[in-house]
Give the backbone structure.
Amino acid sequence: MAGDGTPILEVDALTLAFGGVRALSGVTFPVARGSITSVIGPNGAGKTSLFNSISGFYRPQGSVRFEGQSIERLAPPKRAKLGLARTFQNIALFRGMTVLDNIKLGRHAHMRTGVLDALFYLGRARREEMELRRDVEERIIDFLEIDHIRKAPVGSLPYGLQKRVELARALAMRPKVLMLDEPVAGMNREETEDMARFILDVREEWGVTVLMVEHDMGMVMDISDHVVVLNFGQVIAQGLPRDVQADPQVAAAYLGSGNVDDLRAKLGADARKVA
């Protein structure tokens, strides 16, 4: 696993139920600092419930520790302030606002300006605004290659660029752990290749740990350091991508049989779509 092997995020025995339906059952895994960890599984396996539990939208039993600190009692904004940022499976941007303004909203959790400072645009507010603009314009927008759309309303952009803007907004939160919920869902091959490159660069150049839910198995197996497999709310396998591919339980979850060769053939077909 990439990084020094020490966990920055620890999920321990998470259990979540909605009425009589158990969405998560004793889910446990570490996310090593500096790694790209992917959570995979068939539809309905509990992946989005897991993400919502880690980011604070659901309150499961069990524990979530971030840099050794228990955060299960913290509201989502406080988790974000600690350095836990996420994107969403369905794009959650303000469509009538410009790209630049959407990205700047990501820094809100870290702003120290008081109401009066902001109202009258006094010293601290002015300094924070200038610092924010420099960081967003000179670092994030340039990094994600979206300078040409910075003043465009988000609603006018094609889907792939909207996903990139959502990534930019998450990066504006200065994350230590970036949670990506299906970052390439609905993208074509070129857009998928670009997003995979950005994810790798976020880890390599920015030192951000990535926790990702994704259905594109070719990309997952290509860029992940650690893979966690969920099925019916339980972890059925985890480890290096090659080890997960060789697990008969994973083949059974995806194909309805334990034929590992069939699973590898499927993953090879997915990888060719990205290549």
About this structure: Residues 1-83+176-275 form a domain with the Rossmann fold fold (CATH 3.40.50.300).
